[in-house]
Amino acid sequence: MPEFRRHIVITGAESGIGAACAQAFGQVGDHVTILYHSDAAAAEVSAQAVRAAGGGALSVQCAVDDPASVEAAFTQMEARVGPASVLVNSAGVNMSGVTVRDMTVETWTRTLGTDLTGAFLVSKRFLSGLGVVRPASIIHISSIHAQAVRAGGADYCAAKGGLTNLVRTLAIEEGAAGVRVNAIEPGMILTPMNQRAQDDGAVRHEMEQHIPLNRAGRPEEVANLARWLASDEAAYITGASIVIDGGLSLMAGLGA
After folding, report:
1. Which residues are designated catalytic?
2. N or C: which end of the chain has fewer CB within 10 A?
3. Letter string b/e over residues 221-239, b meaning 16 or more CB atoms within 10 A of that residue's CB
4. In contact, 213 and 17? CB cutoff 8 Å
5. What's the predicted TM-score (pTM) here?
6. Mean pLDDT, consecutive 10-residue segments, the chain of 256 residues?
7. Distances from the Cα of 32 to the Cαs of 8, 24, 193, in angstroms?
8. Is residue 183 within a helix (H) or strand (E), and if so which, with residue range?
């Protein structure tokens, strides 16, 4: 295997922000392990994009809410590439759009399982596999809805709110060991989670009116931030939740 700069592992890297992150790290000569949930073809497209950008790539199936699946994925990855020094956790599901009154336990459990328990499981396994690899960095893709709640989003908002305190706790636990832990909180980004806005120009225009910069964000803009957070330029940043939303979250109190 050729020598690459670093080994990066990214969950949910078959689409959206995760795929953009994979390509961004490939552009600086990193090897990226793409952990995907079920779409092997999409994961291979991401892997090809990483290779075309100048990096190395491996795709491995992983259900982040399943401890056995996480263990198997990391074991396979480490056997083939060695331990990773950067984890970007981008796997997630969107809010259900169902009020608490009507939400099933299954819906609640599914969202929390992927968006919060999954973050815990992949962080735990990444840390146990580090060995002597230092410095190291964990970056969780969160959401402005960790702070700005929405009706119909109790499952998602609770998961992302919990993720904020997981990040903060990990930062103080792992700082002395040379591991930095941060979160990125995107607003409206043009990914499959915002498919209606991508497909319907009128819907997109209406949504963008609430954003001070007057446009939705692009996945590569989030990816560039993730790549920077994993770099030496961000070596003194840990426990932070960095908002990237064009100012959308600043509008939360308007109309009251």
Report:
1. 156
2. C
3. ebbbbbbebbeeebeeebb
4. no
5. 0.94
6. 84 97 98 97 97 98 98 98 97 96 98 98 97 95 95 97 98 98 95 73 82 93 98 98 96 74
7. 5, 10, 23
8. strand 179-186
